[in-house]
Amino acid sequence: MNDISNEQIETDKLRTLKLLTAAIYLCQALTFMLAGLPLLVGVAINFIKRNEVQGTWLESHFNWQIKTTWITLAGFAISGITFGMGIGVFVLISVVVWLVYRITVGWYALNDDQPINNQLN
Hints:
By secondary structure, the protein is mostly helical. It has one domain. The chain is built from 4 helices and no strands. The chain is elongated and about 65 Å long.
């Protein structure tokens, strides 16, 4: 009986962490409407909950989300710095397309209960 309840606890924990991972992808998507703040909220959650996903297939999603956030923020910064030179808009478009790609790939893998393919990192 104890083994069954331990299994159920682990299953419930994984389900909760999967929902949290989905919420972080949602935060990343909301970045477009709320000027980047949800991106920071999402990465904060990643760092707070990172130990809980270690050793699970969700760990790859957390790593993917963290990398997505840092590169997106760097891209936004470079875009802002170069905007006056006329290339900032192209950098911004590239970063937005890349962010949409990362959210889409992550979301589909999460919905299929799959880790992020290491070749994509």
